[in-house]
Design a protein that fits this description.
Distance between the termini: 40 Å
Strand content: over 45%
Largest sheet: 7 strands, mixed
Radius of gyration: 14 Å
Shape: globular
Mean pLDDT: 95
Number of helices: 0
Order of helices and strands: EEEEEEEEEEE
Low-confidence stretches: none
Helix content: under 10%
Length: 120
Protein backbone atom coordinates (compact mmCIF):
# COMPACT_ATOMS: atom_id res chain seq x y z
CA UNK A 1 0.00 0.00 0.00
CA UNK A 2 1.37 3.41 -0.94
CA UNK A 3 0.43 6.75 0.57
CA UNK A 4 0.89 10.03 -1.30
CA UNK A 5 1.40 13.51 0.12
CA UNK A 6 1.48 16.58 -2.12
CA UNK A 7 3.20 19.84 -1.31
CA UNK A 8 4.36 22.99 -3.06
CA UNK A 9 1.08 24.67 -3.87
CA UNK A 10 0.47 28.33 -3.22
CA UNK A 11 -0.38 31.72 -4.67
CA UNK A 12 1.52 32.96 -7.70
CA UNK A 13 1.02 35.68 -10.30
CA UNK A 14 0.30 35.04 -13.95
CA UNK A 15 3.46 33.97 -15.72
CA UNK A 16 5.04 32.66 -12.55
CA UNK A 17 6.21 29.18 -11.64
CA UNK A 18 5.59 26.58 -8.98
CA UNK A 19 6.93 23.10 -8.39
CA UNK A 20 4.65 20.55 -6.83
CA UNK A 21 6.01 17.51 -5.07
CA UNK A 22 4.36 14.17 -4.39
CA UNK A 23 6.09 12.12 -1.71
CA UNK A 24 5.26 8.43 -1.57
CA UNK A 25 5.55 6.17 1.42
CA UNK A 26 4.78 2.55 2.05
CA UNK A 27 6.44 1.06 -1.02
CA UNK A 28 8.97 1.80 -3.67
CA UNK A 29 8.07 4.17 -6.46
CA UNK A 30 9.81 2.29 -9.24
CA UNK A 31 6.93 0.05 -10.29
CA UNK A 32 4.30 2.78 -10.22
CA UNK A 33 2.90 5.03 -12.90
CA UNK A 34 2.49 8.50 -11.42
CA UNK A 35 0.10 11.19 -12.53
CA UNK A 36 -1.16 14.65 -11.68
CA UNK A 37 -4.78 15.69 -11.95
CA UNK A 38 -6.50 18.94 -11.05
CA UNK A 39 -9.97 20.09 -10.12
CA UNK A 40 -11.41 23.58 -10.20
CA UNK A 41 -14.59 24.58 -8.34
CA UNK A 42 -17.65 23.34 -10.17
CA UNK A 43 -15.63 21.29 -12.65
CA UNK A 44 -14.74 17.65 -12.96
CA UNK A 45 -11.29 16.43 -12.09
CA UNK A 46 -9.09 16.53 -15.18
CA UNK A 47 -5.89 14.84 -16.20
CA UNK A 48 -2.76 17.02 -16.26
CA UNK A 49 0.26 14.78 -16.79
CA UNK A 50 1.59 11.28 -16.21
CA UNK A 51 4.93 9.54 -16.14
CA UNK A 52 5.47 5.82 -16.52
CA UNK A 53 7.84 3.76 -14.46
CA UNK A 54 10.21 3.95 -17.41
CA UNK A 55 10.00 7.72 -17.67
CA UNK A 56 7.60 8.14 -20.60
CA UNK A 57 5.53 11.28 -20.17
CA UNK A 58 2.17 12.48 -21.45
CA UNK A 59 0.47 15.84 -20.98
CA UNK A 60 -2.91 17.39 -21.40
CA UNK A 61 -2.95 19.77 -24.35
CA UNK A 62 -3.73 22.68 -22.03
CA UNK A 63 -0.40 22.34 -20.20
CA UNK A 64 1.87 20.96 -22.92
CA UNK A 65 5.02 23.05 -23.20
CA UNK A 66 4.45 24.74 -19.84
CA UNK A 67 4.38 21.87 -17.33
CA UNK A 68 6.96 19.14 -16.81
CA UNK A 69 6.40 15.94 -14.86
CA UNK A 70 9.38 14.06 -13.46
CA UNK A 71 10.22 11.47 -10.86
CA UNK A 72 13.06 10.58 -8.53
CA UNK A 73 12.63 6.96 -7.54
CA UNK A 74 15.45 7.12 -4.99
CA UNK A 75 13.64 9.92 -3.18
CA UNK A 76 10.24 8.26 -3.78
CA UNK A 77 8.97 11.56 -5.09
CA UNK A 78 7.24 12.76 -8.24
CA UNK A 79 7.24 16.39 -9.32
CA UNK A 80 5.23 18.75 -11.45
CA UNK A 81 7.12 21.83 -12.58
CA UNK A 82 4.62 24.45 -13.67
CA UNK A 83 5.87 27.43 -15.66
CA UNK A 84 4.10 30.28 -17.43
CA UNK A 85 1.13 29.82 -15.17
CA UNK A 86 -2.24 31.16 -16.21
CA UNK A 87 -5.31 32.10 -14.21
CA UNK A 88 -7.07 29.06 -15.64
CA UNK A 89 -4.48 26.81 -14.01
CA UNK A 90 -6.01 27.65 -10.64
CA UNK A 91 -7.18 24.39 -9.07
CA UNK A 92 -6.54 21.79 -6.43
CA UNK A 93 -3.81 19.54 -7.78
CA UNK A 94 -3.80 15.86 -6.92
CA UNK A 95 -1.08 13.28 -7.23
CA UNK A 96 -2.14 9.74 -8.13
CA UNK A 97 -0.46 6.38 -8.52
CA UNK A 98 -1.22 3.00 -10.04
CA UNK A 99 0.81 -0.12 -10.67
CA UNK A 100 2.51 0.18 -14.05
CA UNK A 101 1.37 -3.30 -15.07
CA UNK A 102 -2.25 -2.86 -13.98
CA UNK A 103 -4.89 -3.87 -16.53
CA UNK A 104 -7.03 -0.96 -15.38
CA UNK A 105 -6.44 2.64 -16.42
CA UNK A 106 -7.81 3.95 -13.15
CA UNK A 107 -5.66 5.27 -10.34
CA UNK A 108 -6.48 3.65 -6.99
CA UNK A 109 -4.21 5.80 -4.86
CA UNK A 110 -4.57 9.55 -4.40
CA UNK A 111 -3.04 12.28 -2.31
CA UNK A 112 -5.02 14.87 -0.39
CA UNK A 113 -4.41 17.64 -2.91
CA UNK A 114 -2.62 20.97 -2.85
CA UNK A 115 -4.15 24.31 -3.82
CA UNK A 116 -2.64 26.31 -6.65
CA UNK A 117 -3.97 29.82 -7.16
CA UNK A 118 -2.82 32.01 -10.05
CA UNK A 119 -3.71 35.68 -9.79
CA UNK A 120 -3.92 38.14 -12.67
Amino acid sequence: QVQLVESGGGLVQTGGSLRLSCAASGRTLGSLRMAWFRQSPGKERQFVARISSGGTTNYADSVKGRFTISRDNAKKTAYLQMDSLKVEDTAVYYCAARPELSVSDSYPTWGQGTQVTVSS
